[in-house]
Amino acid sequence: MSRSPHSIFNLPQDVIFDILSRLPTKSLIQFTSVCTLSPPLISHPSFTKLHLSSSAAAADDHHLLVYYESTDYINQFYSFRSPITFQESLKLQIPYKNLHGYLRIVGSNKGVICFFDTNYYSNVGMVILWNPSIKKLKKIDDPSYILDRVSHFVVGFGFVSRTCEFKIVVIVYYLDNSNTNSVSVYSLGTDSWKKKEDNIAPCYLMRGWSNNVFVKGFVNWLACKQEIRGVSHEIMAFDLEDEIFHVLELPKNIRPSYNQVHLASYGESSSLTLCAHYLELNGEKWDMWVLSDYGVADSWRKVCVISQPMLSIPPLLMKNDNEVLIVTNDGRLMLFDVNKNEMFDLKTCGLPRMYRAINYTASLALLHG
């Protein structure tokens, strides 16, 4: 069968790539299975790179990934939800069985979800990358560590836009000296680890699992200045492109009497949210701060206060200034409307402190890895 003279495949390759890059990822995947006359354009590494480097994704590619566990401690659930209504659109089954007890979500970027298969103390582990859109999973070989000296691991993940490269950073804190740690960076492009001999983490993260928020090329953790509970907090950020650490201060006007403080994402991971919890005579509340201009300490702004009963669980994320995804103390997933001061039940119930919610944007990443 010959091609029509008006076929798209008679156009220059760069024009075809530009046209296809504007389609939703689901349509591209369907295109590869039905279009037998064309060269394997979607599978071409140059097209995959163009697709990843595009700053604008199709609306159908945006999802919210929500993880939670059943209240009987038996089942784990992953699902895609609408980023607008937060209603469930697809349940996910990960083609991997954890080895150490806990499959922690490290983060998601450009269609790839990063997991850390670890135990409760996070002192063993394996990194897993998974793209549910193309059903591709990759296990990452561990860097070399002497495990009997390890106190715990801290893991971060993200995408470097300039080099179109996925990276993983692992910080290892050691038992013999809390001020001693080592840092290794993995690049998916080279499929190899590199130990940062001249660069150690400037802050301490407590033993156990530490969530992070990826913003504009930086992995961010809420950290302590010293290995002592009760000391002041700061934000430790790792630049995945330059592979160096930075330290960001908390808002200058934050009330220091908080008994919990956590980081969350804002919008499509465009900035950081800081959630500070207070116990007061008239109940408990969360002060919500947003770093409007990432990296600029003076750009912290207090957006709202969430004052509701049974709300000591850290908010999961801020959709915008007016909507916050939260979990009640009895494990119900809710959407809080700031303007109306009302909570809307999303009909999901699980273990209160095991929820995780991250933004997910579909892509063809890992197609060649």
What does this structure look like?
The protein has 369 residues and is mainly beta. It has three helices and 24 strands. The protein has helices spanning 13-20, 25-34, 45-53; strands at residues 62-69, 76-81, 88-92, 102-109, 112-118, 125-131, 136-140, 150-160, 165-174, 181-187, 192-195, 213-215, 218-224, 233-239, 244-248, 260-266, 271-280, 283-291, 300-306, 317-320, 323-327, 332-337, 342-349, 356-361. The strands form five sheets. It has an eight-stranded mixed sheet, with no helix packed on it. A hairpin with a 2-residue loop joins strand 17 (271-280) and strand 18 (283-291). It is globular and about 70 Å long. The mean pLDDT is 88.
- Across the major sheet, the strand order is 19-18-17-16-20-21-22-23
Q: Share of helix among residues?
A: under 10%
Q: Spans of 5+ residues with little confidence (pLDDT < 50)?
A: none
Overall form: globular
DSSP summary: helix tally: 3
Span of the ends, CA to CA: 33 Å
H/E element string? HHHEEEEEEEEEEEEEEEEEEEEEEEE
Provide the gyration radius in Å. 22 Å
